[in-house]
Amino acid sequence: MSNQNPVFIPGPTNIPDRLRLAMQVQTQDHRAPEFVEVFAPALDGAKKVFRTDKAQVMVFPASGTGGWEAAVTNTLSPGDTVLVARYGVFSHRWIDLCKRHGLDVQVIDCPWGTGAPADRFQEVLSKDTSHQIKAVLITHNETATGVRSDIAAVRRAMDTARHPAMMFVDCVSSLASMPFEFDHWGVDIAVSGSQKGFMLATGMAILCVSPKAQRAMETAKLPRTFFDFRDMMAANASGGFPYTPPLQLIYGMRESLNMLFEEGLDAVYARHFRLAEGVRRAVKAWGLGLVAQSPDLYSDTVSAIYVPDGYDSNALTDHAFNAYGVSFGIGLGELNGKAFRIGHLGSLTDVMVLSGLGTIEMAMADLNYPIKLGSGVAAAQEYFRTGPSGHAKAAA
Predict the structure, then answer these.
(1) Are 172 and 343 contacting, i.e. CB atoms less than 8 angstroms apart?
(2) For residues 21 and 106, what is the distance between their CA atoms, to the nearest angstrom?
(3) Mean pLDDT over residues 280-307, rounded?
(4) What is the pLDDT of residues 315-326, one digit of tens each?
(5) pLDDT (average), residues 365-377
(6) 18-261 has which CATH code?
(7) pLDDT tens-place string over residues 25-54
(8) 244-289: per-residue pLDDT in tens?
(9) Does position 3 have pLDDT exceeding 80, yes or no?
């Protein structure tokens, strides 16, 4: 019966029954008018989530990694220079992907638990007077460390340096869960996926592409076929797809957008903050520490939590799964064995989060962690009762 339990990994996330049912559609002709009636509203709705009036949304049958590749291959040429900060596993994967495509990658190494270094970006860009750097790549929400970076600060740094580089943002684990301002932040390409804030199955890369990035694709010389923006844009213009689309996911995306807009995006973001803060209160009550080094960096979709010295975080997550049938995120990269992660995004409620906190508490108690059983749950309960929109306040 463990498949009835929610998962607390930072993606793929729990799929609501409403979306599972929406994806259960029979094969259809994707060149028929009925497909256009589903597909076009889904693209338009996604623009509202990205917060853009000017950019174009495209979807590809892929995960977020495919979206990264599409962003790079459609706008850059072999030997082009890109600037990337490495502060976790997923920012490192941006670097690896660019190197494999023959790009010259300038890397700014940062301590894990910190975010995108706007000041160091500004310093490097200011020195690049010949404008060799063509793009700055940023991971908005570093899923490995539970750190959210300030994209607006990076844009200010780029503007202060008067540098024309494009800005690419990985928002796979932040979009539809935390505020994202594509136009206001001056983003050129944002990359997301279906399996996190949209609460769908994995398999659809969702990109938002600015007019500036669209112009860059006309001179880019990296090879692309499956991920060619030009083919996708030409087909999308008439409501179609350049090849067989992920039909079930597109139906799911339309319904996911309905759910997000029914709740209201501001309410969605407030709910994610509320759930994340409940987890953070629990972590403090346990006497443990977050990997994120300061509150301004705290992610509202995932918390990475250090285990005490002498304990193995992998043993903890293994025990939680084997004993209680609940999945938590393992520590990745430098955090392997040192930290575990609680994903608190997508289809989750106060009650579901309390069940996850209770489960990991039992697992820690089983493994003789120096915590008091029930302390984290009680701290989260008190916050959920009395914090923003708390039920105790409402009753009063």
Answers:
(1) no
(2) 46
(3) 98
(4) 999 999 999 999
(5) 98
(6) 3.40.640.10
(7) 999 888 888 899 999 999 999 999 999 999
(8) 999 999 999 999 999 999 999 999 999 999 999 999 999 999 999 9
(9) no
Report field, pTM of the whole predicted structure over 0.90: yes
**What's the rounded Cα separation, in Å, for the pair 114 and 124?**
18
| H or E element that contains 340 | strand 339-343
Nearest CA among 314, 297, 273, 272 for reference residue 87: 297
Could you give the count of Cα atoms lying within 13 Å of 18 in the half-sphere of its Cβ? 11
Token digits for 32? 């028929």
The CA dihedral of 267, 269, 275, 277, to the nearest 10 degrees, is -120
Containing H/E element for 341?
Answer: strand 339-343
Angle CA 304–326–376, to nearest 5: 55
**How many CB atoms neighbour CB 316 within 10 A?**
24
The number of C-alpha atoms within 13 Å of 300 and in the hemisphere containing its C-beta is 20
CA 99 centroid distance within chain = 22
Backbone angles phi, psi at 170, to 5 degrees: -85, 110
Q: Where are the beta strands (DSSP E) in 47-178?
A: 56-60, 81-86, 104-109, 133-139, 141-142, 147-148, 166-170
CATH number of 265-395: 3.90.1150.10
Contact (Cβ atoms closer than 8 angstroms) between residue 304 and residue 145: yes
Of the candidate ranges 152-161, 238-247, 328-337, the one whose mean pLDDT is the lowest: 238-247
How far is the CA of 216 from the CAs of 60, 81, 211, 221, in angstroms? Answer: 19, 14, 9, 10
Whether residue 158 contacts residue 136, with contact meaning beta carbons closer than 8 Å, is answered with yes
Q: Are 185 and 174 a contacting pair, CB within 8 Å?
A: no
- Domain map (residue ranges) of the chain: 18-261, 265-395
- Tell me how far apart the alpha carbons of residues 123 and 129 are, in angstroms, rounded to a whole number: 11
Which DSSP string do the residues of 200-212 spell out, in sequence order? --S--EEEEE-HH
